[in-house]
Amino acid sequence: MSKSSLTSWFIILVAGLLIPGCVYIPPLGRQFTEEARNQIVVGTTTKAQVRELLGKPDLLEDERFHVYAAIESAGLLIFIAPAPGGGIFPVPLDLKHYLVLLEFDDRNVVKRYELEAAKEMLYEGAIPVERTPRPPLGERKLAFTGEGSDLFGFRTGVGFTSVAFSPDGKLLAGGGFKLVGWALSSKRIWVQDLATRQLRTIETADYDRLVFSPDFTRVALLKRSVRILNLETRNTLAVFSGHGDSSFWTLEGASCLAFDPQSSFVATGGYRGRVKIWDSRTGKEVRSLQAHDGAVVSIAYSPDGRWIATSGRDRMLKLWDPRRAQELAAVKGIVGAVRFSPRGDLLAVNRGNHVEIWQINLLKGAAPPALGLQLLDVFLLPYFGPKYPIDPTVDFSPDGNSLAASNGALVIYDIRNRLRTVRLTPLGQIFHYLSSNDAVWALSFSPDGAWLAAGTNLGVYLWSTRFQRE
User: How far is CA 100 from the centre of its chain?
Assistant: First the structure.
């Protein structure tokens, strides 16, 4: 970083500390100038030369792939603007954020070079710039919105953080948060008959996360403990609370969960790194294992139920045999949302900035049995900005040929042809819970793969997946 840029950062930080009502934390990242961009040439630039230009990758360093988070600032200017809480605060202008993906061939020469660029704005968040035009998704239609109102010009309806189709594709369900006064409340589930458009509302206990069972007969509500409800009768079938209770000083309880393919068992990950397997009908704990040295971020069953994938705050990606509580594979430096492909041979990890696709291999001759994880492909997600803390989500199409992922913006990736279709979403205002935007919180393909359901702040939308390829 140049001396002038360092001076600009110092002025911004000092001004932020001295001016009343001003709190500003500048985004971090590597400097990435136009000169450096122009020096990277596909088929010519080597991995060693890339290291000289950009240094060591900060998001992903693999033998085949490098992913960087970088910034470019051609002289940071200071703009004084009103602060939401009173006073004024400085904002750097002309600051661009880049996500850089580099793929190398067997000679360690650049084979693929992609950029995602955005300019940081005050109230609009991150505005995409210098993007390669990409075809839009197909037809989009609104399924349902829940209940909403307006508050000071902002929509305050339901933010749908979970969506799911019934196995026959006739029903679509969603759940999420609703703004009640100035607090967020999650106490309802919406189920729609897609043929008649009839919408049914189910009152529930408050929850932080919601997961529908694969057979669509039950739903799991997570709020430190886990409550299993019958979707038809609305009765509570079981309650799991074996991860401990939170207090003022400690964060305990379950942090994520997943049903097995037969909807017979529920796997929960805890804030203390433990994974537990439960009988979903009786609530009895079946098995327990210490999976991570920190909170379990995401958990998923393989399609045949033989394996469980977990990702933790200790930045470890692991595969497990849930019946034997045995670790089968582990990769360092990975944290994100995990999902198996329908055939169970691939594992996708949405890390917020990018998505990694891992090949699962059975290691021959290993005793006890073990699996290997090989990084097969990587694709970038649009830079969405630090003002929008949306949990990453990812889902495979039923045929396993496409992958939908979101960090707020939606991307569909053609795995076989390595092509992206990007549908960027507007960010709205800085107070994103009140803003009128359609950032994507949850994704689910229909059983026939013809539609992709997306949970947003505006409602649950259905996108046709019959879009024009790049």
Answer: 18
Report DSSP state, residue 445: E
Q: Answer yes or no: are the C-beta atoms of 266 and 245 closer than 8 Å.
A: no
How many angstroms separate the CA atoms of 74 and 84, rounded?
A: 28
- 178 Cβ partners below 8 Å, 6+ apart? 146, 147, 148, 156, 157, 158, 159, 184, 185, 186, 187, 188
Q: CA nearest 440: which of 423, 465, 421?
A: 423
Tokens of 91: 């904002």
Q: Over the stretch 381-396, which tens digit does the pLDDT of each residue have?
A: 887 655 445 678 999 9
Helix (H) or strand (E) holding 158: strand 158-165
The answer on pLDDT for 437 being more than 70 is no
Q: State which fold the 140-267+330-464 domain adopts.
A: Methylamine Dehydrogenase; Chain H (2.130.10)
Instruction: Report phi then psi at 13, rounded to 5.
Output: -65, -45
Instruction: State pLDDT tens for residues 50-106.
Output: 999 999 998 999 999 999 988 876 555 554 555 545 555 555 556 788 889 999 999
Rounded CA separation 438/424 (Å): 10
| Domain spans of the chain, in order of start | 3-129, 140-267+330-464
> For 181-253, where are the E strands, in sequence order?
183-185, 188-193, 199-203, 209-212, 218-223, 225-230, 236-240
The rounded distance, in Å, linking the Cα atoms of 300 and 258 is 6
Q: Do 8 and 16 meet the contact criterion of CB atoms below 8 Å apart? A: no
Q: How many other CB atoms are found less than 10 A from the CB of residue 5? A: 16
CA 380 to chain centre: 12
Token couple for 112 = 């693929």
- Determine the Cα angle at 409 with ends 30 and 153, to 5°: 110
How many Å apart are CA 3 and CA 184, to the nearest integer? 45
**Under 8 Å CB-to-CB from 435, ≥6 apart: which residues?**
154, 155, 427, 428, 429, 457
Q: Order of strands, edge to edge, in the sheet holding 460-464?
A: 140-144, 460-464, 451-456, 440-445
Secondary structure (H, E, C), 413-431: EECCCCEEEEECCCCCCCC
Closest CA to 437 of 452, 422, 445, 427: 427
The side-by-side arrangement of strands in the sheet containing 354-362 is 337-340, 346-350, 354-362, 371-380
Mean pLDDT of 411-416: 91
